[in-house]
Amino acid sequence: QMHFLLLFSRQGKLRLQKWFLPLPERERKKIIKDMTTMVLARKPRTCNFLHWRDLKIVYKRYASLYFCCGLENQDNELLALEILHRYVELLDKYFGNVCELDIIFNFEKAYFILDEFLMGGEIQETSKQSIVKSIEASDMLQEMSMAFEGGRQTVFKSFL
Amino acid sequence: MPAVSKGDGMRGLAVFISDIRNCKSKEAEIKRINKELANIRSKFKGDKALDGYSKKKYVCKLLFIFLLGHDIDFGHMEAVNLLSSNKYTEKQIGYLFISVLVNSNSELIRLINNAIKNDLSSRNPTFMCLALHCIANVGSREMAEAFAGEIPRILVAGDTMDSVKQSAALCLLRLYKTSPDLVLMGEWTSRVVHLLNDQHMGVVTAAISLITCLSQKNPDEFKTCVSLAVSRLSRIVSSASTDLQDYTYYFVPAPWLSCKLLRLLQCYPPPEDGAVKGRLVECLETILNKAQEPPKSKKVQHSNAKNAILFEAISLIIHYDSEPNLLVRACNQLGQFLQHRETNLRYLALESMCTLASSEFSHEAVKTHIETVINALKTERDVSVRQRAADLLYAMCDRSNAKQIVAEMLSYLDTADYSIREEMVLKVAILAEKYAVDYSWYVDTILNLIRIAGDYVSEEVWYRVIQIVINRDDVQGYAAKTVFEALQAPACHENMVKVGGYILGEFGNLIAGDPRSSPLVQFNLLHSKFHLCSVPTRALLLSAYIKFINLFPETKSTIQEVLRSDSQIRNSDVELQQRAVEYLKLSSIASTDVLATVLEEMPPFPERESSILAKLKKKKGPGAVSVNELEEGKREGGELNGGGERGGDNSAIAASNASTPSPSADLLGLRTGLPVSAAPPSAGSLLVDVFSEAGVNDDGFLRDLEPPTESSDSLLAEGPGDSDSTPPPPPSVVSEEPAPPLPESDELLNKFVCKNNGVLFENQLLQIGIKSEYRQNLGRMYLFYGNKTSVQFLTFTTTVTCPGELQSHILHIYTCIIQLNVQAKPVEPLIEGGAQVQQVINIESLTDFCDAPLLNIKFRYGGALQNLTLKLPVTINKFFQPTEMASHDFFQRWKQLSQPQQEAQKIFKANNAMDTEVLKAKLLGLGMALLENVDPNPENFVCAGVIQSKAQQVGSLLRLEPNAHAQMYRLTVRSSKDTVSKRLCELLAEQF
């Protein structure tokens, strides 16, 4: 099970934080600090795995952003790398050539996409098509007005 | 994807984000944020009702500010309002805010739960998923209480959409992890297991995480999943890469699901059904075969996904540990990876091989890669890979290659990264000890360790070398000669001085014949280091000097002169001054015979079975280790692994009698009431206390490094089955059975965890007061029984029993371990009205314990029999000895106690005001040392102490983190024994 997922820039600016276990705020800050310093200090072409406390840390750099997650001891590091990659693919598919700015300005979307993919630190859906479909569907729903009489939903109205 | 979907019109948010990004300084950013916060606050407070869009925008801004790292203390209510919005995005942002900024305000939670309830019953899959996500994100106990019953129904209902099933499965898993007691699978079990057969791969992928977790906890109820998992796996493994459509990832069919299936199978032993097993072995072989096939894509994603499955399959093969053929194939495959150009694969291969090395089938196969691994240790550019290489060398070490591996590790230590040196030192020390055939090699290795990495040699390591030298007379002369030579170096490490001082003090005579190491030369050599050393080392050297006076009468006058000098006898350090005074006096008054007795050579340390060997046996069953190896291990390991215990120590007692009691010795006079054999060496016995001086962690450093897969509770940790210490049966005046403990007895007990005196119990008739005092593993308790009435209490009797002892009468005496020895003096059978009687209870802690002794009181009041049972407030922390230590030492020890079971943690709500002074007083009352300036956060408290019992000493560290904002504490306890951590944590969680 994944404990957390962090996205931060090469300058150490946090872009996204997702905690799959309840942790006090102070502990979160400590983790963020440790992860950014540890990962940013790694030299190029070193391996993507680290040990930290009793967690396995898996990270990978995509352009200016580092994707970094903490796993339990029995979890599979290679698969975690591909979880990160799949998330990048999903962001890319949604934003089209995703870049750091997209994530800064649409941070809530980045969270929603992640929620479709992972839940409680476990994989919910691996199919790119299914995930993208449900995100598109919720974009469509943006202006859906709800009429619950008789349990029927009525009007779909695309926002633009 | 249309560009519009990104912004959905929250222009204000985009503007705000750009503003923040344009801030030139942190101050400017804070200013801008404060302005925005003020604005939002006024909007929320304003009279004009906000429309949904504005609410959403402001809530989203608050979220952004929070994610920047600022505190947000309002907006929760507005976010909750959004939950019931009929616009999807408003609802979505509301849920996101709630999930990120969980608030424990109960009124809010009620509202949130209501909104969730509505969405769950809306039958709108998108809303249901949002609600389920929120439950999983928050995952609190309250949510579990509200929804744990509903979610399984959603999960297995026939008409639930697939996407909702996926969310429901993982949501349930999350709740199960928070509150397993609330998630009752019972009737759902078989339908949940059958989700493995679901047509929708996404549903299977989500459900299997839940099933795996449930199987770990209730393997029997879920065991039907094994055959289902095998057939599902077999279908995936044999499918073509295109069969699974979008579940194929870079030409690898369903890698996530495959890995999860393999992981699920690791919860169970190999399938018993031959056909199932055959099918599974076939799958595993196919996976191994595929590794040899040329890749279908050059992309790293392809090889990662493929190898992820391969590594998971290897884990399963290792878990079964029963198929030699597969084990050897796995080992060969990993061997290939050891030289792979991908650093990640080299890293994982090293890691995985560590576990293979412990299997009897593959140990030899792993050993063939020794040169590659040594090469990795020397040449890998990445420190994390080097560390794995060191781990593997440690794991593959046995008698045949120990010398080579130890030599390689020693030479690597010279250049090793600072971050891993300490661990390397411990590993070298353990290997050297475990596989020492000739002890001069062992001594050389440890001295080399001190020379190369003295700063990283913890005290356990140098304690061990001394224990071993003392126990083996064939190495003593060599050791004396070697340390003498080592001390000649112009700059030698203080640890070397410690070892040198101790060994020359004991065995200097063995090399005194050589004029180059005559007694005076030895003394001068030691004394030349004296002024460079810290106080504890100086204290040790002083003890070595007095031993010299006994060994070499010709050095007496020189040494007396040293002791007499102002820098010793008037030293500002009490310990040094006292030693100087006492040793000087001892050497001048005592006759040679007395001196010879008092300063006799240390007796051997008691033999104990090696904790490593015990673990090996436990892991593999007695048959797996050959008799030869066992005997060998017993002979060598036995002597070597004596642990830091000193028992039956004549010279210790003699010394403590001869020397003036130190200020701390026996002030309470506790020892007089107990048999002599129970008396531990007094703190005043100066000659033998090199081990207790800094003795935080005497209980065997070998345990610190055992792999964390199993409990570190070795045989060493068990207490003595000492049936002699059962107290005599109490006088039975009233024949009625003792009453069960009062319901409030636990609460009463908790009141005394941090204090020793007070009123334990009071009702209309009787008041019981307590005074108690503890020292080391002994305690004395005075109970005052006060008759509050004007009438006599007749046939007043009290009985004290320990839970363990009660069991021992019913079950077999030999299997029960008595943890506490409690002796109560009888009380007067009659208490006049208004009078008070006193009872004395002596307590000796034999090993660590959880249950408090029970005190049963019976008496007649106006003809009616009163019968009540209380818990005597004897808790494990009473036997704490505080340990002062510096920040560095604290964290070092903290790190050493990093196995999961050594730590116990609790997060709990504050029951009282969070006043720093009160907290401090409580922690001091607990008996540990409260360490200042250790935790980087000044609001946290850290403590250290050693729990004393007759059988062992358990070092414990504690960290208490108050969160004033949330009115919560987080308490973490680490100690060398898991039961102790757990118990301390339980006790303390009730105190704040």
TrEMBL record, chain A:
<keyword id="KW-0168">Coated pit</keyword>
<dbReference type="InterPro" id="IPR022775">
    <property type="entry name" value="AP_mu_sigma_su"/>
</dbReference>
<keyword id="KW-0472">Membrane</keyword>
<dbReference type="InterPro" id="IPR000804">
    <property type="entry name" value="Clathrin_sm-chain_CS"/>
</dbReference>
<comment type="subunit">
    <text>Adaptor protein complex 1 (AP-1) is a heterotetramer composed of two large adaptins (gamma-type subunit AP1G1 and beta-type subunit AP1B1), a medium adaptin (mu-type subunit AP1M1 or AP1M2) and a small adaptin (sigma-type subunit AP1S1 or AP1S2 or AP1S3).</text>
</comment>
<dbReference type="InterPro" id="IPR016635">
    <property type="entry name" value="AP_complex_ssu"/>
</dbReference>
<dbReference type="GO" id="GO:0030121">
    <property type="term" value="C:AP-1 adaptor complex"/>
</dbReference>
<dbReference type="InterPro" id="IPR011012">
    <property type="entry name" value="Longin-like_dom_sf"/>
</dbReference>
<protein>
    <recommendedName>
        <fullName>AP complex subunit sigma</fullName>
    </recommendedName>
</protein>
<dbReference type="InterPro" id="IPR044733">
    <property type="entry name" value="AP1_sigma"/>
</dbReference>
<comment type="similarity">
    <text>Belongs to the adaptor complexes small subunit family.</text>
</comment>
<keyword id="KW-0813">Transport</keyword>
<keyword id="KW-0333">Golgi apparatus</keyword>
<feature type="domain" description="AP complex mu/sigma subunit">
    <location>
        <begin position="1"/>
        <end position="140"/>
    </location>
</feature>
<dbReference type="Pfam" id="PF01217">
    <property type="entry name" value="Clat_adaptor_s"/>
</dbReference>
<keyword id="KW-0968">Cytoplasmic vesicle</keyword>
<dbReference type="GO" id="GO:0005905">
    <property type="term" value="C:clathrin-coated pit"/>
</dbReference>
<dbReference type="GO" id="GO:0006886">
    <property type="term" value="P:intracellular protein transport"/>
</dbReference>
<keyword id="KW-0653">Protein transport</keyword>
<dbReference type="GO" id="GO:0035615">
    <property type="term" value="F:clathrin adaptor activity"/>
</dbReference>
From TrEMBL, chain B:
<dbReference type="InterPro" id="IPR017104">
    <property type="entry name" value="AP2_complex_asu"/>
</dbReference>
<feature type="binding site">
    <location>
        <begin position="11"/>
        <end position="12"/>
    </location>
    <ligand>
        <name>a 1,2-diacyl-sn-glycero-3-phospho-(1D-myo-inositol-3,4,5-trisphosphate)</name>
    </ligand>
</feature>
<dbReference type="InterPro" id="IPR013041">
    <property type="entry name" value="Clathrin_app_Ig-like_sf"/>
</dbReference>
<feature type="binding site">
    <location>
        <begin position="57"/>
        <end position="61"/>
    </location>
    <ligand>
        <name>a 1,2-diacyl-sn-glycero-3-phospho-(1D-myo-inositol-3,4,5-trisphosphate)</name>
    </ligand>
</feature>
<keyword id="KW-0254">Endocytosis</keyword>
<dbReference type="InterPro" id="IPR050840">
    <property type="entry name" value="Adaptor_Complx_Large_Subunit"/>
</dbReference>
<keyword id="KW-0168">Coated pit</keyword>
<dbReference type="InterPro" id="IPR016024">
    <property type="entry name" value="ARM-type_fold"/>
</dbReference>
<dbReference type="GO" id="GO:0006886">
    <property type="term" value="P:intracellular protein transport"/>
</dbReference>
<dbReference type="InterPro" id="IPR011989">
    <property type="entry name" value="ARM-like"/>
</dbReference>
<feature type="binding site">
    <location>
        <position position="53"/>
    </location>
    <ligand>
        <name>a 1,2-diacyl-sn-glycero-3-phospho-(1D-myo-inositol-3,4,5-trisphosphate)</name>
    </ligand>
</feature>
<dbReference type="Pfam" id="PF02883">
    <property type="entry name" value="Alpha_adaptinC2"/>
</dbReference>
<comment type="similarity">
    <text>Belongs to the adaptor complexes large subunit family.</text>
</comment>
<comment type="function">
    <text>Component of the adaptor protein complex 2 (AP-2). Adaptor protein complexes function in protein transport via transport vesicles in different membrane traffic pathways. Adaptor protein complexes are vesicle coat components and appear to be involved in cargo selection and vesicle formation. AP-2 is involved in clathrin-dependent endocytosis in which cargo proteins are incorporated into vesicles surrounded by clathrin (clathrin-coated vesicles, CCVs) which are destined for fusion with the early endosome.</text>
</comment>
<comment type="subunit">
    <text>Adaptor protein complex 2 (AP-2) is a heterotetramer composed of two large adaptins (alpha-type subunit AP2A1 or AP2A2 and beta-type subunit AP2B1), a medium adaptin (mu-type subunit AP2M1) and a small adaptin (sigma-type subunit AP2S1).</text>
</comment>
<feature type="binding site">
    <location>
        <position position="43"/>
    </location>
    <ligand>
        <name>a 1,2-diacyl-sn-glycero-3-phospho-(1D-myo-inositol-3,4,5-trisphosphate)</name>
    </ligand>
</feature>
<dbReference type="InterPro" id="IPR003164">
    <property type="entry name" value="Clathrin_a-adaptin_app_sub_C"/>
</dbReference>
<dbReference type="Pfam" id="PF01602">
    <property type="entry name" value="Adaptin_N"/>
</dbReference>
<dbReference type="InterPro" id="IPR009028">
    <property type="entry name" value="Coatomer/calthrin_app_sub_C"/>
</dbReference>
<dbReference type="InterPro" id="IPR012295">
    <property type="entry name" value="TBP_dom_sf"/>
</dbReference>
<dbReference type="GO" id="GO:0030122">
    <property type="term" value="C:AP-2 adaptor complex"/>
</dbReference>
<feature type="compositionally biased region" description="Pro residues">
    <location>
        <begin position="726"/>
        <end position="743"/>
    </location>
</feature>
